[in-house]
């Protein structure tokens, strides 16, 4: 009987610095590296895997366009990593350059050049350890298309059924009688992981799915079609750990345990090398990012992406104020901090809205707007995996889940008529994916008015607003009311 320890992280999002919670330090890249090194020294057979989204979330990552992240993860030395949707945020060509800087394997089976179906990355990796051969296959979410809409040469399988078929092709071609375990390293979200697990042919021999994208915290694996499906939340404050027993004679996993473990000063020393390199990057960014840009009246929160929040209302209102449009559609997922203020440094501002792009204005009818809101509030929204929005002041949407109806649909105290014209605004990411995110063809809306860019930088507007409006506050005030 052989033993294998399989550690895994996902959605690290540049979570480099530790956080003190109840007097105890959790997470940070140095402590995560310390934990991985500690397990490698304690156990004989250890593999560490990362299931995508290493990039975005911190100014250290953004300032160096992911190169700082690669530099730090090189020291962390994962045995295998998969591509996440935020790995393409700086562009596909930059990602391919960054890959050359990585001293660790990056795999993906379903990102390809549309002209000739050539894969951009190695689709799989065979790792041999203590005579055991483990096959890893990387699968990416369809949302990568949303980030690369302008790069028409790039495509991905956008259907889970097609992704399952690709897994079968790789298993048929590269899984041999010597393969002891097969692990899918995915970045498609927990719902799609479940669907994918149900579609797997048992003869393909997939043993484990390690996922990411939905930031799911789990107490135990979900076993679907005989395959355990796991995620490890997000950031560096937790890590997933499989302890696997493998029966060589029967050529099968004889048993396993899985834990979702905190990474804290209790169980992980700081890696001194990571600390030194991280300090160098932090010193460079602190001079630029530590200045105060705002003093809010109190701390504001954004605890969930699929409901009205204080930070969401604040940002939607700042962008709509004194504008030429009526309603700002602020993407909930574009707001990255769960808390903001009362002192807001430039670093806080940039980390909260790292996706700084242009804002488009469009005109919609009341009837079209209702279709859009009903699409946003569809059943999948309450699982937290679809695009959701924060709306600027004046709206009142009351939606009942059980009947899928809007019981109130008002703007500035009046019912919105079907033929009423309203001007709305949204960031470029949402404009480029208008039909997918809002359920109505962009061409249909363009008939009302030619869309135009009204802001070239969200953060420029936010910083200026902060500078001339001291003591800002925001409340959850019933702009969006969801009834059971």
Question: Mind explaining what this structure looks like?
Answer:
The protein has 484 residues and is of the alpha/beta class. The chain contains 15 helices and 30 strands. The chain is globular and about 75 Å long. It has two domains: 281 residues, Metallo-dependent phosphatases (Purple Acid Phosphatase, chain A, domain 2), CATH 3.60.21; 194 residues, 5'-Nucleotidase, C-terminal domain (5'-nucleotidase,  domain 2, Alpha-Beta Complex). The strands form eight sheets. Strands 6-5-4-1-16-17 form a six-stranded mixed β-sheet, with helices on one face. Strands 9-10-12-13-15-14 form a six-stranded mixed β-sheet, covered by helices on one side. The relative contact order is 0.12. Helix 1 packs parallel to helix 3, helix 1 runs antiparallel to helix 8 and helix 3 runs antiparallel to helix 8.
- CATH hierarchy class name of the largest domain: Alpha Beta
On the 0-100 scale, what is the average pLDDT? 92
The CATH superfamily of the largest domain bears the name Metallo-dependent phosphatases
Unreliable runs: none
Task: Give the tally of structural domains.
Answer: 2
Would you tell me the structural class of the helices and strands? alpha/beta
Number of strands: 30
Shape: globular
Radius of gyration: 23 Å
From the N-terminal CA to the C-terminal CA, the straight-line distance is 52 Å
Could you estimate the helical fraction of the residues in percent?
25-40%
Question: Main sheet: which strands, in order across?
Answer: 6-5-4-1-16-17
Strand content: 25-35%
What is the CATH T-level topology of the largest domain? Purple Acid Phosphatase, chain A, domain 2
CATH architecture of the largest domain: 4-Layer Sandwich
Number of helices: 15
Largest sheet: 6 strands, mixed
């Amino acid at each position: 009987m052989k033993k294998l320890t399989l550690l895994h992280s996902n959605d690290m999002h540049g979570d480099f610095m530790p956080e003190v919670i109840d007097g105890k330090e959790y997470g940070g890249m140095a402590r995560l590296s310390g934990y991985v090194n500690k397990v490698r020294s304690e156990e004989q057979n250890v593999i560490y895997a990362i299931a995508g989204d290493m990039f975005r979330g911190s100014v250290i990552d953004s300032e160096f366009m992911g190169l700082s992240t690669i530099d730090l993860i090189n020291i962390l030395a994962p045995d295998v990593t998969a591509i996440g949707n935020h790995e393409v945020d700086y562009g596909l060509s930059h990602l391919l350059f960054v890959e050359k800087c990585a001293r660790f394997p990056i795999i993906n089976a379903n990102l390809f050049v549309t002209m000739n179906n050539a894969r951009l990355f190695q689709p799989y990796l065979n790792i041999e350890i203590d005579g055991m051969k483990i096959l890893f296959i990387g699968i990416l979410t369809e949302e990568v298309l949303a980030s690369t809409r302008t790069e028409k040469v790039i495509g991905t399988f956008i259907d889970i059924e097609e992704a399952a078929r690709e897994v079968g092709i790789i298993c048929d071609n590269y899984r041999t009688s010597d393969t002891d375990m097969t692990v899918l390293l995915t970045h498609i979200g927990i719902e799609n992981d479940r669907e994918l697990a149900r579609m797997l042919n048992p003869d393909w021999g997939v043993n484990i799915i390690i996922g990411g994208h939905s930031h799911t915290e789990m107490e135990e694996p979900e076993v679907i079609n005989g395959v355990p499906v796991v995620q490890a939340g997000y950031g560096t404050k937790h890590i997933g750990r499989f302890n696997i027993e493998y029966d060589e004679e029967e050529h099968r996993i004889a048993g396993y345990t899985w834990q979702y473990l905190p990474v804290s000063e209790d169980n992980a020393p700081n890696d001194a090398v990571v600390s030194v390199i991280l300090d160098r990057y932090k010193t460079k960014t602190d001079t630029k990012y530590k200045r105060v840009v705002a003093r809010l009246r109190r701390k504001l929160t954004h605890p969930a992406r699929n409901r009205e929040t204080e930070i969401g209302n604040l940002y939607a209102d700042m962008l709509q104020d004194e504008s030429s449009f009526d309603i700002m559609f602020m993407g909930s997922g574009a707001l990255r901090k769960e808390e903001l203020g009362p002192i807001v440094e430039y670093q806080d501002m940039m980390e909260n809205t790292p996706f700084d792009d242009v804002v488009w204005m469009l005109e919609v009818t009341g009837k079209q707007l209702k279709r859009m809101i009903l699409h946003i509030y569809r059943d999948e929204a309450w699982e937290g995996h679809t695009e959701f929005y924060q709306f600027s002041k004046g709206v009142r949407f009351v939606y009942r889940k059980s009947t899928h109806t809007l019981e109130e649909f008002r703007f500035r105290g009046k019912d919105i008529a079907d033929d009423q014209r309203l001007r709305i605004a949204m960031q470029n990411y949402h404009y480029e994916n208008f039909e997918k995110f809002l359920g109505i063809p962009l061409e249909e809306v363009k008939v009302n008015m030619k869309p135009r860019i009204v802001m070239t930088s969200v953060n420029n507007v936010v910083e200026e607003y902060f500078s001339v409006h001291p003591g800002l506050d925001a409340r959850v005030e019933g702009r969006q009311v969801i009834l059971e």
